[in-house]
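Researcher: I'd like a structural prediction for the single chain below. Treat it as a standalone chain; there are no partners to consider.
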Amino acid sequence: MKLKLKYLSLLAGASLMFSSCEDFLDKKSEDAITLDNYLVSDENLLTFTYQVYGPYAWDSYEDKFSWCAGELMPGNVYHNYGDEGQFSSLEFNNTNALLLNGYTSLYNVISRCNMLINEMPKGVGPKVSEEAVKKAVAEAKMYRGYAYFLLTEYWGETFLVLKNSDVITAGSASQIQKASREVLYAQIEKDWKEAYDDLPATPWGKNGERVTKVSAKGMLAKLYLTMASCQNKLASNDYVCPDPDKFYNDAITAINETFEELGAAKKELATTEDYENIFMTRHHKEVLFALEFESGEYGAGSSRQIQFGRSKYLNNEKNAYGGGKGLSATIFENFDSKDIRKRACCYFTASDKDGDYDEYMYVLNNAGPYEYRIAPSNWDDSKFGDESRSPVLNHCRKFVYNTPLDNEFSAPLTFPILRVADLYLMRAEAKMALATKDVQEKISAGIEDVNIVRNRAGLGNVETIAMYDPDYVQNRTICDASGEYCDEFPYYVEKYDLMIERVHEFAFENQSWLDVKRLFYRNEDAAKNYLKERDRGWFYGEALNIEGKAVKKNDFMRQRDICSLSKIQNPDKPEPEEKVIDTDKVQWFLPLPVKIENAGYAAGLYTDVNAVKSGNYPY
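Model: Treating it as a single chain, here is the predicted structure.
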């Protein structure tokens, strides 16, 4: 038989969704890739399967949606431009183009995985081993499960499609209903359990980058932790975990078994000295599951370096769009001065005892030095070209290292989905939840796992911790340069809790909105307060004297305070308002993109969990 690779992304837009699937199926044969003469060996199959790891599959998701949803929505990153900035202010609707990009990209991944699971085994040559086919199917199930996990956590109820070719051939696309979260969770669990059965136990592939049993078992732990957190009914058909304690224990068991499979040596975190290499190098041993992007033409690699690079110097003298982005002020200021993770995730300067800023020297991917200055345009001897001053006095470092590349949007990158550190912090979260239902209670349960991660970061032990400890507002006295005009201004003072520990460990890794969602599932008010405390309006300006002139290059102050102090001399001058997030309007589940919504779909909700578990789901 001829196996034709049809990237049947059912939900890639109105033209492909329901109304025109048959037309898409009837594309001319030259639009399909005939694989009869390619899938003739285990090695070729291995290369072919790599598509679900990243290149050309995950690029539209990774390009913008991943960090807009994962980092801007929870308030980790300061950025206020265009469709992207709407995620920071949490003021987007279903016309935001990035929603469509993220949504359709995930279904593109799913369609590729479905092809590998359903069609590939029937089209391989006789010399391809059964073992190679089983592993390829298992790899596809790992990434299909992850794509559905993201769809479920971001959008909630969504369309479950497991057999693209069958659906289009039968013309049954218009019959597909959205599936309930319970159904989706059941399919994700099924995918990852079946992947576990057929994946190797030890690292494999050319560079040890392929998924293994620990990838599957670790992600099952994350699934169980998420399901256990669902303790409140949020809508008429919403999922509520039937036995949270059981699922928390299931998560702990899965993590313990993952550690057993890793072995004593590999369960150890990377050393303090090696921490930055987790992100700077490829296929680091601490990364258990990842997206893998490669250098090449557009779509093959990650655009993270161009999207977050401060200047052309940090993106191989190509374009850079990260001059105005940085870790938000509340997160940036909350790092302990001894915490190595601050330097690993940000480019910033140190502040000496006099309040002046000293440049920091960094090492880039090519082992070259990079001297970070807050306002390099003010220096006559700037070595790194035209560089923007960040509104929050720092720039993104994690994944931005002047990595050599062929296309400015395609940097080679191993992007972590699951790291060993996450196993420790997830186990701590599960133990804490078993010890108390109150997310604000400070307890000792799980603290040994938290301290393992803290110690690697260069920090000492803590004795107790809460999932969420509300921040408090404290006034600070701010003066102009002369010291003559002063006033008090309120600031949120960040308190240490598991939520902020996870931000410090996983900043820029797109984990935070998933963390906020677990808090939301347990306590909606706590999640709302957490979002409010991120203080998204905070950005810095050069401090002004009372005549309105810049005092000195390295003297910066919150823009709100500068404006307020200037009103002492100009009381009639209107003060610009900082954006305040209305947490009562937060869209905890993202709206379906308008192009998908307008295409129409079957009414009702698919809720037959048993059909999914037994493998009898019809679509």
